[in-house]
Specification:
This protein is of the alpha/beta class. It has a single domain, classed as Glutaredoxin. About 35% of the residues lie in helices and about 20% in strands. The chain has helices spanning about 1-25, 80-85, 105-120, 130-135, 175-190, and strands at about 45, 50-55, 65-70, 90-95, 125-130, 145-150, 160-165. The protein has a five-stranded mixed sheet with strand order 5-4-3-6-7. The protein has a two-stranded antiparallel sheet with strand order 1-2. A hairpin with a 5-residue loop joins strand 6 (about 145-150) and strand 7 (about 160-165). The relative contact order is 0.19.
Length: about 200
């Protein structure tokens, strides 16, 4: 009798969790292929560690900014990217692309993980829970292993300069520092000298 009750409880819990996930995942918006212009930036964004406050996006993303957009696992190499690029550029922004996650994952798991991955860096780290930056940058893939790098040019156009990926388990430390450096070498070669000069 007890086993039957336990099985029913487990089954109901699973059905509830699946139903909740289904109901809270927002369908992705259609992404238009057009020029990405700085003037079309979303007005405000949330930053990791300050999710309850909104910040003016144009004070964060501006001319000569390099933008690294990570999808969950690939966020694990964001700080390595910062370390390798900061001699070349002073304006760097990281974006946590978690807009397709259910609200409860965004609220607890993704939020906590982004905060942990950010560490004590003073580089702006956007928590893109509503997908406004993702859609602005026309990022179609939410594959957790992929990352994309953009550059804001002097003419205020935003250009995609690289898309790469990490190995499964990177977020758990399965990619060595040497492998990460090798993975990022292509994008580092595509980024110009100090502040695009």
């Amino acid at each position: 009798m007890k086993k039957t009750s336990i099985l029913k409880l487990i089954l109901l819990s699973v059905v509830f969790l699946v139903g909740l996930t289904y109901l809270t995942v927002e369908p992705p918006k259609k992404i238009e292929n057009k020029d990405i212009l700085l003037k079309d930036l979303p007005k405000t964004v949330n930053l990791v560690g300050y999710e309850d406050r909104e910040f003016n996006t144009n004070s964060i993303i501006k001319e000569n900014t390099i933008i690294f957009v990570g999808n969950f696992e690939s966020l694990a190499i964001a700080n390595d990217f910062i370390e390798l690029i900061k001699g070349k550029r002073s304006n760097i922004v990281i974006v946590s692309n978690i807009s397709d996650a259910p609200w409860f994952i965004k609220k607890w798991q993704a939020n906590k993980k982004s905060l942990e991955l950010r560490g004590d860096t003073d580089i702006p780290w956007i928590y893109d829970k509503d997908g406004s930056i993702r859609y602005f940058l026309q990022i179609k893939s939410t594959d957790p292993l992929k990352y994309t790098v953009f550059e804001v040019l002097k003419d205020k156009n935003v250009k995609k300069i690289h898309q790469g990926s990490v190995i499964k388990g990177t977020i758990d430390g399965k990619m060595s520092k040497e492998d990460i450096k090798k993975e990022l070498s292509d994008v580092l070669n595509k980024i110009g000298d100090k502040d695009g000069k």
